[in-house]
Amino acid sequence: MNNNEKSRTYEALYDRVKEMRDLGGISAEILSSMGFLWVGYYLVKDGNLVLGPYSGPPACELIRKGKGVCGTAWQDARTIIVPDVEEFPGHIACSSLSRSEIVVPLFSEGEVIGVLDIDSESLDSFDSVDAEWLEKIARLSEKILNQI
Ligand code: SME
Q: Which of 30, 84, 94 to mutate to test the pocket of ligand 1 (most atoms within 8 A of CB)?
């Protein structure tokens, strides 16, 4: 997929996600539209990231602050793109098939309340186009979480 096709695919995906209220369903939409390996949410609970709704193979249930890509995105409160998971110190390998990853934090009142985590079977799958659209989906996800 070139970047134009990717943007168009994300645009159509975003239109569907806008109408959705279930994070598991949103994960499945992202996974099937974009062909990723794993898409899901980790939510902050009692000082850890706990596995929330997801789509894909089974995954680690608990991630500590500052650990792995997810715990680092939480600690730094910023989107992290990892072109090659083997090059990321402390990466947590839930699936040996994962080669690259993006993690987008979710906020409420300035605090990180969780992350949207996505794994790909290909190296270097994520760039600023993914970050831009997944951050938009993160904003919708925050609204859903704040209504629960
Ligand atoms: N790789 C992540 C762990 C979660 S799985 O990818 C689903 C990390 O390093 O935080």
A: 94
